[in-house]
Amino acid sequence: MKRIPRLHLILLAGTMFFFGCASRSKRLTQLSDKDLENWVCVYSEDASPDEIRKFDLAILDSDAHPDLSHLRNSRTILLGYISLAEVGEYRWYWPEISTADWILDKNPNWDSWMVDVRETAWHEMVLDKIIPRILADGFQGLFLDTIDTAEYLEKWHPGGKIPGAQEGMIKLVREIRRRYPKIYLVGNRGFSMLDKIGPYLDGVVAESIFTSVDLANDKTLLRSASQYDDKVRQLRRARDKFHLTVLTLDYMNRHLEPQIKNIISISRANGFVPFVSTPQLDTVYHDTLEQ
User: Fold this and answer.
1) Is 129 helix (H, G, I), strand (E, B) or coil?
2) Across the beta sheet with 113-115, what order do the strands follow?
3) Is 27 exposed, middle or buried (0-12, 13-18, 19+ CB in 10 A)?
4) CA-based, 20 to 30 A from 126: which of 30, 102, 180, 258?
5) What domains can you pick out in the chain, each with its CATH number?
6) Whole-angstrom Cα distance, residue 227 to residue 93?
7) Buried-exposed string 86-110: b where 16+ CB fall within 10 A, e elsewhere
8) Residues in CB range of 188: below 8 A, 6 or more apart
9) CA 52: distance to chain centroid?
10) How far apart are the C-alpha atoms of 205 and 80, rounded to whole Å?
């Protein structure tokens, strides 16, 4: 069975900021212009299009997804998954890059290979091959995952810290926006770089803000306010500064219905758009439609 992709976990110089604003003005629309009340994230080609179309926005795996022809005429905005700093061996482009010297070691927590995000060859692969294929399938935009990996590589990588990894990620996100000015771009987390990539995004997914996951023991826990307040304030500042839509994604065991309702309420109270799933992200859950 194909492994699902994970979600995990500069002050712009005048010229850079100008291009960020210019690219925003050229877009056909912005997520902040939309009245988004709900969204779904599901990585399964067996997911029902009829279920997905009930949501305002859907993030789907770019390789394993249901037939998009059944969704293109719906109101649902479709975003395709792309990982910017890690690659799973199940991806169609893995054989082409597997022996490159900029493929690093495996992520110790996930079955994916980390990438030196400073490398021009990787940027070209993303910009010239991977993204065009995703958009050709009918997606209206991209979900940019593993942004946080750049911070890990620069600050904590046990195989040797990689200076400039975060700047390499910022450059890649900026170039995606420059090359594709009229598509939706939503990043996952990337809090350490949010002030620098914010001008190029339409939204940000705040994964595991209100919950924590113990995968080894199959447990999910609700965080306390003291654990998430700083992140909430940071997200609200970024939302207001860059006109971003903030989508929260939290994981909770399905039998804990009161906690699920609590998560949804907290997210909405902060002006965010919640979705609560399980770490497998293989099922469409309707909690946010019913509450």
Assistant:
1) helix
2) 86-87, 113-115, 103-106
3) middle
4) 30
5) 14-290 (3.20.20.70)
6) 39
7) bbbeebeeeeebeeeeebbeebeeb
8) 7, 8, 143, 144, 145, 146, 147, 148, 204, 205, 207
9) 18
10) 14
